[in-house]
Each structure stands twice: as structure tokens, then as C-alpha cells.
Amino acid sequence: MDVVLLSRLQFALTIGFHYLFPPLTIGMGVVMVYLEAKYLATRDPLYEAAAKFWTKVFALNFALGVATGIVMEFQFGTNWAAYSRFVGDVFGSALAAEGIFAFFLESGFLALLVFGWDRVSPKMHLFATVMVALGSIFSSIWIVVANSWQQTPAGHHIVQMTRDGAPWVVDGEPVMRAEIVDFWALVFNPSTVHRLVHVWIGAFILGSFFIMSISAYYILKGRHEEFAKRSFSGALLFATIASLAALVSGHFQARSVARHQPAKLASFEGHFATGPADMSLFGIPDGDDEVVHLDLAIPGGLSFLVHDDFRATVVGLDRFRPEDRPPLFPSFVSYHVMISLGMMFIALTVLATILLWRGKLYRTRWLLWVFVVAVVGPVIANEFGWIAAEVGRQPWIVHPPLEWTADRDLVVGPSGVVEYDDTLGLRTANAVSPSVTAGQVLGSMIGFGLMYLCLLAVWLYVLDQKIRHGPEAPAGADDTAHRGVFDVAAVRASHQESMTGPRRPESGT
Amino acid sequence: MMDWATLCIIWFVLEGILLTGYAILDGFDLGVGILHPFVPRDDTERRIAINSIGPLWDGNEVWLVTFGGALFAAFPEAYAAAFSGFYSAFILLLFALIFRAVSLEFRSKLEAGRWRRFWDWGFFGGSALATLLFGIAVGNAILGIPLDATGNFTGTILDQLTPYPILIGLMTVALFAMHGGLFLYLKTEGEFRQRLRDWMWRSFGFFLVAYMLSTIYTVALIPGATANFEKTFWAAAVVVVNVLAVANIPRCLHWGWPAKAFASSCVLIATLTMLFGIALYPNLVTASNDPSLSITLFNAASSPKTLTIMLVIALIGMPFVLAYTGIIYWTFRGKVRLDEHSY
User: Fold this and answer.
1) What is the SS3 assignment for B58?
2) What is the DSSP code string of A299-356?
3) Alpha carbons A332 and A281: distance in angstroms, whole number
4) 3-state secondary structure at position A314
5) Is B95–A82 a contact, with Cβ atoms under 8 angstroms apart?
6) How far is B108 from chain A (nearest CA, A)?
7) Phi first, then psi: what are they for A360, rounded to 5°?
8) How far is CA B109 from its chain centroid?
9) 449-488 in chain A: CB under 8 A from chain B
């Protein structure tokens, strides 16, 4: 096998595994800030127990995120040396900013968050929680900036490098690289904001579904019910808003893709011939015959989505040379899986919200069971969303610019296809490390594969142990001394039995 | 805007500071890991050892991550050449660091003896291997590696496993073990501490032997490494401080001043990193086959614009970083106390 394919597979494996954790921590971070702030405001020990429980789970997820994250930073250099040379001036600064602004913040305050309960004041502890949540969000900003620049580069120019003051030439070829011209144009390149919002929403959905999954399990088993219901309803509200917002954000992102990466959108939708475009709901794309089999589509849907007009022209794959098209099948499938799951999240969360509002949710056991397993959905949606974004960018690792005509078509060459200027982008095939052999990559990939398989198993096992153990029983009545009599009565009523002891499923309030 | 050469040198120094910060801070973390199978005798002692670094190791490792990110941004040519050139070593390093991190995290989650034993060995193995590889990388960086005109490594992994890098690797293991022992001594009490004393002497002994051997090897057989010391007068001062720091450690141990011994160990690590930087300058990646192919900090650097932006980022960010670090070290000062939130 060749180094390019192996390096891509290794990157996909390592980033795919790593990306199980960041959205979880980003999403859970927000919920933890909420729970701890609630505790400080109400002094209700139940919120304290909840905050402590979720912190433990959070710390476990965070540790795996950190451990697998170092790989990502090193891998640009180890496997993608040619890429690193080409983009270092631009991409590296975003990465360095991530280190300075985000990683130190997260890792520093994580220590207080996890180990500091008895060492710092509750206010300082809340501050630490806020800082960790912010740190994980900062880190997502910088890495999304870096990724978005690859997709829709801006704020840079491509220049010949100099060596010892003279233009640098190796084997008769000038050595080129991207350099920053305008830092803020780079940061706010055309796809940054849309992508970032979508990434955050994806993280919020995953974080809240994760909390709902564990909470639903407790409710079904009749354990820690009061705790579980509060966690569930808080997370449900968050998940409902996020699921609906994902639809809106996805729409804006699709428009941005149509404008800046039309080949990607055409692959997502299996849109071959430039002209009015349908929105495919289901199908099996076939790149050889240029058709989508078993196609179920809304006629003119894509045209409407992109241009608010059912008959508007949308650029199809026929505007691109075969070697300039993204791989059709993975683009199409990953995009469709993501969207279908997104629709499912809306249906599930809206239904649950209605039931919660009518006071029936916690008796609808089948739905709670659905929520126990539904956490797999956002994991897949987050992963497939990135697969769509990254595979859809191929064959480019840094996308070259495109030119548009006045009537929403691409400027094409004499043969009717876009003639990219290869010197203004970088093909993935040219981005790998020249000094690394296929054997080395295969070896490291097997190593990562085995290691990650073990980590996944141990992570799930430890997580399961933590969930079985559950939150600690809240501290005694002393904490409730200064609260209103109704609050105390309410807590008393729900605490007649031990918080950790088993109860009959239907006995909740 | 400052001129490009000045910016390049500033970034060379900043990279040096990040590397020094990493070596001092994660140095004791790794050292605690290296001593883990030898010093603590039961689960409580092992927990004390692990919790001495529990809240700190993650932040300490960020110095490495930031060093890597800054190298990518400031000197992309060097980042690309070094990371792809040392491919197998870096991948092994990643395995070691991952395994070490999850060992720390997983160990405390279950009580079972075998479970804990396994992650104890993971913690030791990850720490020892990572330290050894850091040393081997430094040794190879001093020796240089064969490069082509674009700066790609042209040798094989076996070229990197020669006696000198291995010697430097072993010296680093002994150095960090001693540094970690000194740190642990400050964080512990009682009988555990008495046992640590022996191990501090032992690791100092190992270090001293490796230190003297590698000094002789470097001075006698690697002319490239000592050339700068003949040209730069203040480099001699670094050498003197370095030797004094080494000598001060047994003195402090003998008189029972562990904090001073630890401070000397920090100075020792800082001066060793400086010596490494002086020996390299102006190269970042030395070409062993042809000096003109070496990647210097001037021809590896990013544009002046990027270096300036990064300098602004660093100037804004560093005070915050120092503040967080200060808060965390202050909060977790003093002897290790185990509570329900500990590992």
C-alpha cells in the first residue's frame, strides 16, 4: 500500500478516536457550569452531588482527550512533512495559539476542578469549572480556524521561499509556501464561523445526549431518581435547542460550501449535471454511471436550499475533472448519515420535551430506553460530519481558489471543466513526509489501532463502573439550614429513602 | 517591526524557554514514574507518589505540546524535518505518553490488585520510555542526521540508535529519576521519605557516571558540539553554573536541605538545556552528511509577519500561563494529602 493512503487512514483513525472526547467535554462542560452555579445559588446538596458526579465522568473523558490529542499535533510533522512545510507559517500559528490560550487554561484549572473540591472555596471551584469549559471552547476555536483555512483559505499568499537570502530552488523547482498576509482575514476565513457554530452545536448535542443516556438509565432502574431527573430535564432542554439550531446552522454551512467548495456539495448530494438540483433524501451514488440509484429526492430541493429558487443552477460534478472530484461514495454517505441523524435528534428531543411538559416523560419507559442508547447517534453524527467535511475537501489538503461567473457558474477552461491552479493549493497526495516509508506508517497504524482498541474497552469499562456506582448521597441536613421551608420540605420528601438505594421505578414525584 | 534575524533568535530563545520549562516540570513527573516500582512499597505509598504529581502532570505536559506547536509555527522546516526524520522515535514517544497518561487516570478507578499493578507498570514503562526517547532525540540532534536538499531524513532508524544517543538517553533517565526523587522527597513524610533518600543517592550516582561519560564523549569525539563554546565567552559561564549545580546536589543532600537540592536540580536541567541550545546554534536540525544542508533557525523560520504575530500571542498568553501555573502549584503546595478526590 502506498504512504499517502496509509497516512490518510492513520490520520482518520487517530482523529476519529480523539474526536470521541472533545465534543463530550465541550458539551458536558457547559452542563457542569450550570449545575455548579445552581448549587452555589441554591445550596441544594443534590446539585452538589450532581456536579461532583459529572466532574468525575468529565475528568475521565478529558484525560482520554488529552492523551489522544498530543498525537494530533505531532502527526502533522511525522506523517505530513510536506504539508507542514507548506502551511506552517499559517496553520502553525493557530496551533500555537491553541497551546498558549487554551491548553494551559484547561489543564491548569482541570487540576482545581478534579482535585480541588476540599482545597479551594466553592466560588473559586466554580471559577475553575468555568475556565475549563472556556478552555475547551477556546481550543475548538483555534483548531477549527486552522481546519477552515484549509477548506477556504484566506488572508495569505503563496510565495517562493528564500534560503540564505536567495530564492530557494530544489532540483530546478522553486520551493513555495503559504504565508500570512492578514491575520484576522485568516482567522475569519469564509467557513470559520459556520463551521465553528456547527461544531459547538454538535458538541452540545453529544454532551447532553450523554448525560440523558446515563440519567435515563437511572430513572429506569429507579436509582438516584431525583438527581437523574434534574440532570435529564436540564440536558433535554439543552439538547432540544441544540438539535433545532443544528438544522439552521447546517443550512448556512451548506450555502457556504456551495459558494466555496462546489465539488464537495455536488458529491454530498450526488449532483452530476450542472443545472437545477434535487435534494437527495436517500440513494446509492454511482460515480461510474453518474447516477444515484434508488434515489428518493425532493425535486429542486438543493437549488432552493442554496439559492432560494427551485430552478436555480447548482454546479455539478461535470464541472470538474475526474481527478479533481472528491470520492463520491464516502462523501455522499457520511453527509446523509449526519443529516438523517440530525433529523432524528430533533424528533426525539421535541417529543420528549412535549412529554416532559405534560408530565408524562418519566413514565414513558420505552422512550427512556431509546434515550439510553441514543447517545450513539450524536457520536456517529459528529464523526460523520467530520468525515464529510474532510473527504469532501479531497483531493486537496489545502483547497485552491475558484472563480465564479456572474450567473452562478464556475469559470471553466476550454474543455468545460475547472482548471485549478495547483500552485495555489496543495494536493493531499503531495503532502506526506517524503522520508517516511509505507512500512513505518503501517507499523504505527497497527500500534495505534491496538492501543486505541484497548483504551476504548477500558474507557467503556471504567465508565460503566462509574455509572453503576453513581453519585454520592448528598451531605446531611446541615447544608439545608438556611433555605426556605418549602425547599427543605421538598428535599425531605424526595429523600425519604437513601439516595443510592434501589427504589421502585414508578415511585418518583 | 523588528528585523527578521532578531525575530528568529527571539523565537529560538522562546523555544528554549518552553523546552526548559517542560524538562524541569515534566522532568519530575517522569522521574516519579521512573522511581515508581522501586520506592513506594504498598498501595498507599504508591497513591502518595502518584498524587504528588496528580494535579500537576497534565499542565506540565502542555509545555511540550506548546513547544511542538510553536516549533511548527515558528520553524516549520525544522518541525517537518525533525518529526518526519525521527518518525519511529516520535511514534514510540506518543505511545509512551498516551500509556502513561491513561495509566494515571485508570489506576485509581478500581480497587483490584491486579488492575492497579498493571497500571503501575504502565506508569513506569511510559515514563521511562518517554524519558529515554527524549534523551535519544537530544543525542541525535547533537550528532546530526543525514538530510537531502529539501531537508528530508535519508537514513534509517538504526542510524539513530548509536552509542552516543543511547548514552544521552540513559543520562536523561538518571537525571529525571533523581529530579523526581527530590521532588517526591519534598512532598512526603515519614518512613517513605527515608527510603527515598537512598534512591536519591543512587540515581545521583547513576547520573554522575552518565554525565561524566557523556561530557568526555562530547568533548573528545563531537567537535561540532563544542565549536560554539570557543567563540562565545558567556557560554563558559553556563558550563560553570552547570558543574556547580551538579556539585551542589550531594552537598545539599548530605546536609539535609532537600529544597535547595531540588532547586539545584532545576538549575542543572535548565543549564543542560542551554548547553544543548548553544551546541546546536545556529542549527535546528544538523545535517551529518553535509553541513551546508543543515536546517538553521534562519532558513527554517516563518515569515517576519508570522513571527511577530506569534510574539504578540506569546506576550499576551505567557503572563496568563504563569498565573495559572502559580495558582495550581500554590493550591497543591505542601505534603501530599490523600482525600476522596485523589487518584
Assistant:
1) helix
2) TTHHHHHHHS-TT-EE--GGGS-GGGSPPHHHHHHHHHHHHHHHHHHHHHHHHHHHHH
3) 11
4) strand
5) no
6) 10
7) -110, -10
8) 29
9) 451, 455, 458, 462, 465-466
Distance of alpha carbon A94 from alpha carbon A146, whole angstroms: 6
- Cα separation of A141 and B323, whole Å? 22
Beta strands A173-174 and A275-276 are unpaired
Residue with cell 468545460: A416
Q: Are the C-beta atoms of B140 and B279 separated by less than 8 Å?
A: no
List the grid coordinates of A351.
417529543
Query: With an 8 Å Cβ cutoff, is A407 touching chain B?
Result: no
In the three-class reduction of DSSP (H, G, I as helix; E, B as strand; rest coil), residue B266 is classed as helix
Query: To 10 degrees, what angle do helices A192-221 and A365-374 make?
Result: 130
Whether the CA torsion B277, B282, B285, B289 is positive or negative: it is negative
Rounded Cα–Cα distance for residues A498 and A454 (Å): 36
Q: Which residues of A touch B322 (CB under 8 A)?
A: none
- Select from B62, B90, B153 the Cβ nearest to the Cβ of A435: B153
B321-337: burial string, b at 16+ Cβ within 10 Å, e else? beebbebbeebbeeebe
Nearest to A453 by CA among A62, A8, A13: A13
Question: What is the grid cell recorded at B224?
Answer: 561540532
Q: What is the DSSP string of A355-409?
A: HHHTT-GGG-HHHHHHHHHHTHHHHHHHHHHHHHHHHTTTTEEEPPP--B-TTS-
Q: What is the pLDDT along chain B (343 residues), one digit of tens a residue?
A: 578 889 999 999 999 999 999 999 999 999 999 999 888 888 888 888 888 888 888 888 888 988 988 899 999 999 999 898 888 888 999 999 998 988 888 888 888 888 888 999 999 999 999 999 999 999 998 888 888 888 888 887 778 888 999 999 999 999 999 999 999 998 888 888 888 888 888 999 999 999 999 999 988 888 877 888 888 888 888 889 999 998 889 898 888 888 898 999 999 999 999 999 988 888 888 888 888 888 888 888 888 888 998 899 889 888 888 888 888 888 888 888 887 777 8
SS3 A414: coil
Amino acid identity, residue A52? Answer: K
What is the Cα–Cα distance from A185 to A88, expressed in whole angstroms? 17
Residue B41 · residue B193 · CB < 8 Å: no
Q: Is B57 exposed, middle or buried (0-12, 13-18, 19+ CB in 10 A)?
A: buried
Task: Report CA B135 to chain centroid distance, whole Å.
Answer: 8
